[in-house]
Design a protein that fits this description.
Rossmann fold; elongated; five-stranded parallel sheet; 2 domains; Arc Repressor Mutant, subunit A; 205 residues; alpha/beta
């Protein structure tokens, strides 16, 4: 089964290069865009399985376009592409709940592996840089999690689903959702990926 890909970059040469790196047996490029505005239009028109989005583009940046797409479709799978790795851009990408952040120096194997992980429900970020960013954000923050919330946070760090956590703790899935909402609020975070990294950097696994 082939998965559809939308490639967004303001340089045609980069779009062609990324296309050439994709495994043609697994992925097919169904559309291209040269800026954020067109990317949003193309996404709504084509509904690709995954979007490879350049971080910095004229008119509307990739991060702004990703924000608009995710506001319309929270399930959109977007992977940011960048020529450099900066903590500020990385943390904003995480805050937006995009699914990945890759450097344009990535080879074919790394790119295809990352896309397969994203399509299977995983997130792909440079781990050391992400941990450092989360550390800096929370270095002076004291968080008062209850023992139950800490226990659930450990499950999140291991990649467990709400259903799996509920089964392990013998509670309802709704109860787990309430706890996770409380955890994210206390940690001042927007999504599970951020919470998982927070737990990982503190050894809560």
């Amino acid at each position: 089964m082939q998965h559809s890909v939308l490639i967004v970059d303001d340089h045609a040469l980069i779009r062609e290069g990324v296309t050439s790196l994709l495994d043609s047996e697994q992925f097919t490029v169904i559309g291209e865009a040269g800026d954020g505005d067109v990317a949003i239009e193309k996404y709504n028109e084509l509904k690709p399985d995954v979007v490879l989005m350049d971080l910095k583009m004229p008119n509307m940046s990739g991060l702004d376009a990703a924000k608009e797409i995710l506001a319309q479709d929270p399930d959109a799978k977007i992977v940011m592409l960048s020529v450099e790795l900066t903590e500020a851009d990385l943390m904003r990408a995480v805050d937006l709940s995009v699914k990945g952040y890759l450097l344009k120096t990535s080879n074919s194997e790394a790119l295809n592996h990352a896309l397969n992980l994203v399509l299977s429900g995983e997130s792909v970020f440079p781990s050391e840089a992400l941990i450092r960013g989360m550390n800096n954000r929370h270095q002076a923050q004291e968080v008062g999690l209850t023992p139950r919330e800490e226990e659930i946070l450990r499950y999140i760090a291991r990649g467990e689903s709400n259903k799996g956590i509920a089964r392990s703790l013998d509670v309802t899935e709704g109860t787990i959702k309430v706890h996770i909402k409380a955890i994210l609020k206390k940690l001042d975070m927007n999504n599970r990926t951020q919470a998982a990294i927070y737990a990982y950097e503190r050894g809560l696994t």
